[in-house]
Amino acid sequence: MKAVSLLVRKPDISRAAFRAYYERHYCLLAMQHFPFRRYVRNHLLENDDRFGFDCISEFGLAEEFRRVPLMGSRSRQLMEADELEFMQPELIRVAAAEEHILFAADSHGPSQQRQVLLFRDEGPGPGPQGLKQGIETLGAELLRQLDSVSEMKLDLLTSDPAQPFPFDALLWIRTEGTDGFPLKPGTIPGLVGSLAVMTCASSEDELKERFVRFQP
Fold this sequence. Notes:
With 216 residues, this protein is of the alpha+beta class. It has one domain (2-210): Alpha-Beta Plaits (2-Layer Sandwich). It contains 5 helices and 8 strands. The chain has helices at 15-33, 74-77, 80-83, 127-145, 204-210, and strands spanning 2-7, 38-44, 55-60, 93-104, 113-119, 149-158, 169-175, 191-201. An 8-stranded antiparallel barrel has the order 1-3-2-8-5-7-6-4. It is globular and about 45 Å long. The two termini are 17 Å apart.
């Protein structure tokens, strides 16, 4: 299973300080308490505050965790004190993600930046299936237009209505160039905006090595 979360820094620290604390402390603690199969932190660049969050994290776990209330687990409780050091935990938003690989090259370039396109299925629009088809069509067009795309994937999102996630889909694009970005909302159905992010990914070996125990 895959999930994504939005994290918001404390108002009295910079985005650079938030990123440094996350990468040097918090993510290491998370690896101890959760048996991640994938753990990727996508940090927004310093000057982009349009959407009110600072990081989109991606998590992969075994399928049996789909029915486990992770946010209410003892493992999560053990991390709350550390969260207060650099983020606003009451603003965390989580969504389950259905991932679709639209394109994957055999290798990636050296850049750790990605573009992420944010979508909402608003009003009497096309619905989830129509949104998916529209994004897939857009993805095919972008593959023809952009140079050096090495990966493109689509996350279709569902969340708890009591704590709704602000987006219904994310389109991730790894490319060495940034020509053509950001895409403008209003020109593409459902598109809210696009962001440049700096990606920090933990290897499978590190995730296995650091994991200690999950407590429900």
